[in-house]
Structure to design on (172 residues):
């Protein structure tokens, strides 16, 4: 396993649309292992492959609390089949937009289908933080970042903040 570099805004690669994976192979699993390790190292609760520069429809996630046992989840070619009309705001953050948190409205519950780590089809309803996180990560597969939902002013301010922080980091 290896820790990969996480791309940050305004890197244009993050705007790419990710392609479906043909089959879940050992190579796919090796990529998911790297993604999970990168996410834990960051640390974060979700990561899409495009965030490490790979335009494939793959997401890893772990919503367990720090004290608890790790509960890694893997999603290949996820699709939203249904969602409820009710939305709920949640303060979202993103490893590609470090230190920026903004309230975003998302569907409270979504019915999703995807292939898991073993390539098996899973169909289930996601709700709560799980629903927020899967919608956020699936946006990445379409090249959409949560700050795209903000006003232009707020979005530009967020990107500037990230550029400044990255410059400081590079200077160390
Ligand atoms: Zn994100």
């Amino acid at each position: 396993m290896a820790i990969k570099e996480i791309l940050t805004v305004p890197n244009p690669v993050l705007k790419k649309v990710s392609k479906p994976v043909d089959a879940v192979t050992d190579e796919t699993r090796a990529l998911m292992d790297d993604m999970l390790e990168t996410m834990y190292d960051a640390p974060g609760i979700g990561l899409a492959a495009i965030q490490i520069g790979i335009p494939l429809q793959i997401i890893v996630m772990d919503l367990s609390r720090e004290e608890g046992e790790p509960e890694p989840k893997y999603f290949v070619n996820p699709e939203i089949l249904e969602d409820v009309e009710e939305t709920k705001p949640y303060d979202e953050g993103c490893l590609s937009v470090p230190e920026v948190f903004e309230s975003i409205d998302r569907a409270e519950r979504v019915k999703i289908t995807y292939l898991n780590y073993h390539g098996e089809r899973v169909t289930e309803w996601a709700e709560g933080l799980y629903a927020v996180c899967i919608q956020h990560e699936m946006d990445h597969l379409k090249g959409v970042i949560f700050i795209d939902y903000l006003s232009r002013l707020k979005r530009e301010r967020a990107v500037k903040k990230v550029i400044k922080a990255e410059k400081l980091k590079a200077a160390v």
In short: Helices lie at 26-41, 129-141, 152-171. The chain has one domain: 12-171. The beta strands are 46-48, 58-61, 73-83, 87-92, 102-107, 109-115, 121-127. The CA atoms of residues 109 and 127 lie 5 Å apart.
